[in-house]
Task: structure prediction
Amino acid sequence: MQLSTRDKPAFATRMSAQFLRFGLVGFLCFLGGLASVYLLTDRLHLHYVLSMAISLLLLNLIGWLLNRHWTFGLRVRRSWAELARYLLVSGTSFALTLVLLALLVSGLGLNYLVASAIVALLMTALNFTAHRLWSLRVPDPK
Result:
């Protein structure tokens, strides 16, 4: 897609707004994850690993719905293939986060909190791009 000079500011503004909404959805899902793990573990007395697994599944579904409707404004019908792509991006991101964290901490000797912040910023940008261009891409009108 080639943008005209006139369309570039509108495209940049739309993408910036999407990125901010994406970040907010991620932050809300993070808070929801903490709350759900706490409730499932401390209040319902589930094992913390089971609590985390339930939380991850639940919050990924919530993140998918919020991102598809609010962040990217998708109005096309939802599909299992779209959800599978979304979860594939999320799972790949999780694995890559662990690898990058290990490289920065064990390989380069960075403090784990500094490394976590660096990886979080990098993965936010990569996840936004992957979801925007692949998992939640608006289909081209035929």
Remarks:
- Residues 8-135 form one domain.
- The mean pLDDT is 88.
- The longest helix spans residues 8-43.
- The chain has one domain: 8-135.
